[in-house]
Structures are given as C-alpha cells and as structure tokens.
Specification:
five-stranded mixed β-sheet, 8 helices, 212 residues, Zincin-like, 50% helix, two-stranded parallel ribbon
Length: 212
Amino acid sequence: MRNLAHGWRLEADEGSDELVREFIRPALRAVPRAVAGRLGVCLIRLEPSLPNPDAASQWRETGEGYEVVVATGETDPHDVALELLLCLGQALWEKLDHSERSGYLLQLDAEFHSGVTGEINDVACSEKEALLSSRISAISRRRLERYARASFASTAAEYIHAMWHDVTVREGGEHLPAHVVKKRFQMLSRWFPPNRGRRLFGRTTLTLDSDS
C-alpha cells in the first residue's frame, strides 16, 4: 500500500513503479483539494485487467469515499492516468449539490441554443448524439442525465488534466470549441479552485489544434 496526495492510498505491483511515479502521482497532485474533500478517502488500485475485458476502469462508493480500479494492461501510461481522472469526474458528478448540477445543466442548455456540436471525448459525444437523435430522446430525462454525467465527467477530467500539464484542445465537428471548454473550466474553477501554485490558463496551458 502506497501513500498518495490528499491522504489517498494506492495498491499496485512493483512493475507499475514508473507508471505511478511519472503519471499517477503527478495527475493526482493536480486534483484540487476541494475535489478531494468532496470525494473523501480514495483507494486507487491498478490491475493488469478487470473481470469485464471491455472495461478500462470501475469504481464504487465506500463508507469513507471511493475505491477506483483502473486496468493497465497494454494501455499507454498517460491514458491510464486519464482514465483514473475520468473515474474521479464520474464520482464527483454524484457529489454535486443541487445548485452545481443546475448550473452545469444550464451551461449545456446554453450550448444547445448556441448550436455547439461535439464534446470533449467520444463517450460524451455519443451520449449527446443519442440525446439529440429524435424528438422523444431530446425530452427524455434519462437521456439528458446520461449525457450530462458523461459530459461533466470528461470536463472534470480535462480540467484536472489542464492543471497537470499543457493540453491540446482539438477543434472540428466532433470536438468541443475551445471557447466552450474554457467556459466550462471557468465554472469548475469557481466550485473547485486550482491548488496553490497551479495555473489553469497559463501561457501555454490550452493549445488549439484545429483539424477542421
């Protein structure tokens, strides 16, 4: 058992030393203290694979906080860390209060009315497409909840990612425009301010890479 930032703990075999040192620890140090406080005590486990071979991760709430299991396998180490951040984003969605959830839903509504297409990652994009696939889907509360959860989780993961190191925001039909990404990040920064010494919008933190 190893100690991590925020009083969190890690279970991983010795073969994961480089992954933990170069990716997991730096990524978790970027997690805002306000996020860590909301999630409680987290146990992070790195496993070669999960019982469901199609799953990259799984998490569950415990009495003290959360247990997060991420599959390492043949996955790129950076992607393992991002999958961990995505799990934290999913768990954080469950911990938002009513005003925070309403605020995020209002942000999504504003994006809809502005004709914003695309999303931060493929899962959120697929949920958005499913929501907007028909009139019936568009008024489905269940569909909206699925999309909002996926959208928030990926946004929260990228928010932390942007405080870990410089990131690239790709633009194009399937990608979220950079100005929308910044607006979401600014919202999260009000709820979960960056840790001291972390800069969200540094000189090169958000680099635009247009593939349109």
